[in-house]
Specification:
Largest interface: A-B, 34 and 42 residues
Number of helices of chain B: 6
CATH superfamily of chain A: Glutaredoxin
Oligomer: heterodimer
Number of strands of chain A: 5
CATH class of chain B: Alpha Beta
Shape of chain B: globular
Helix content of chain A: 40-55%
Strand order of the largest sheet of chain A: 2-1-3-4-5
CATH superfamily of chain B: Histidine kinase-like ATPase, C-terminal domain
Structural class of chain A: alpha+beta
Largest sheet of chain A: 5 strands, mixed
Structural class of chain B: alpha+beta
Number of strands of chain B: 6
Radius of gyration of chain A: 16 Å
CATH class of chain A: Alpha Beta
Amino acid sequence: MKLEELRKIRERAEADLRLRGGPTRVKIVVGMGTSGIAAGARATLRAILDEVARRNLRDVTVTQTGEKGLAAQEPIVEVHEPERITIYGEVDEALARRIVAEHVVNGRPLAERVVAVREVKG
Amino acid sequence: MIADLAMHLADLVQNSLRAGARSIGISLARRGDSLLLEVVDDGAGIPEDLLSRVTDPFFSTKPGARVGLGLPLLVQTAEATGGECRVEGREGGGTRVWARLGWDHPDRPPLGDLPGTLVPLLATHPEVEFTVELRDDRAAWTLSTRELREHLGEVPLTHPDVLAFVERELEEGLAHVGLKEER
């Protein structure tokens, strides 16, 4: 392993985190079981990680989960906000990028391919 | 359908994660004319009476799941290339899935995009320790997320520079042990 390179990455990233620290505002969960992986969930997950990184969204975390019984609509992407959870289905790379840009950044959920919206009771 | 071996591995890792594993070992080895593939975890394990059925295409433990084709497909892929696939419980809990495929067999699926498939999975599960081991008759290469995290401190594996770094490392590892293919 190129430890010197890793050390530099850490130094840069830590300096960045100090500048922009703060709590998590949005959690994005990508569902990818067998069918999701076959349906392109890895491209979806990569697109979301890439978009979040490119836009430097420090208050967004990205995680991944297995199948959720929605196999026919995979890849599934869930956007968890304090007040609601929005679930999108059949999310390809392009839609994944729009979810980040329009929903997560601009706060305007997309109208298309929404499988469910769950209000979170406070 | 599962088109390459990277997807098969991702599917096995997904099974381990679903079983609540905290430690997952992924290994890929080229030995003579065989390609050996293994995923070992410390998850909940598979009860003895179900072990013989997990490779049955019509059997799944996931409630609501219509298909549980991951393991049966791997069995099919392994056998189609003159190899075999075994699913075993481990002493003290956990599961070991092991498959042997014929490397030069025309029906062997390509390796696929291993870095692009595995690295996002590894990075998005900070609660799990992953090791990736690649080897052939001459060389061996290992990656451990625990070691990466020790060097990274608070910086997550999902950081873009880290993701790119780990993918490059894995790419080099594959080349180092003769698992890089032009197909």
